[in-house]
Amino acid sequence: MEERVRGIGRMARETGLTVSALRFYDGAGILVPARVDPHSGYRWYGDDQVAPARLVARLRRVGLPLADIRRVLEHRRDPAVVDEILGAHLVRLEDGLADARRELSAARALLDLELPVPTVLRTTTTELAAALRAVRYAVGADPGLPMLTGVLLDVDDDAVRLAATDRYRLAVATLPDASVTGPACSALLPVDLADEVLAALGTDGSVTVAVDGPVITVELPGGTVRGRRLDHDFPDYRRILRPSSAHRIDTDAAELRAALEAAPTRTVPHGPDGAEQTASVLSLGEVEIGVNREFLLEALDAGAAGQLVLELDGPITPLALRDPARPGNVSMLMPVRLPA
Fold it and tell me: Domain HTH merR-type: where (predicted)?
């Protein structure tokens, strides 16, 4: 029985693809017509091409790249391969949505600077002091990177966080019991202002932090501290935070300090000018990793003194230190690359 064929117009109506899209996918080698009239160049499609074309239409609606569409068509009878391709694309879409939400939040913050609506958070002096101490050590000091020379106050619908980084270290601390009124916002506190607030947090009680346009006001039991936010965009630290890791080691601060004290060291190249640095070599489970001893000790000093969870994916990925009692808090250290 001879297979029925349809012209490109009917194929477009049956599949949801436009005529121009069908021509494009022909040129890309994804949906090649069953035959093409050698004189007129008119394209004809067979019955067995309708379902793949409808599949292509749906995949393009969700933005699947052409290379992945081609792989799906080639392996459409292999569910494992198809699931892997579609799953990876779904993760990209979810990451993109999260990025879009953050960018829109930042755009709202810029609009709020023009028509400011204050964001006010209330917490305790104990909680704020603990969060500031947990991140203060990671504040950058390079004047060439002014966006790293402060402590980020990040308020959104999910949580209130403080964050700091100098590119080699990242520290994030949450204020789990803080109450918030006003819109989401991100404000970069100058390190001098953060230090002034930290020094004034000696008395137990409640504390209020208000972000009103460029001005940050902290009401403390003993008085008021006020300053102006830094006009710089802090890096998107959330993209560095990972939900899970390949290796997870339960330990405590004292045990890790002892391991660091006993760890062998290696001298390794550092930078393009032939400089060298000393790395302490830790064996964490199955992974041997080089760390900057002073950086790790500072992270331990800033965190809790009890149980810790160490997370990493490999010897050249950041080492994460987490406090099980405060799952939202994390310190991340870039490793020192060890020569093979």
Answer: 8-75
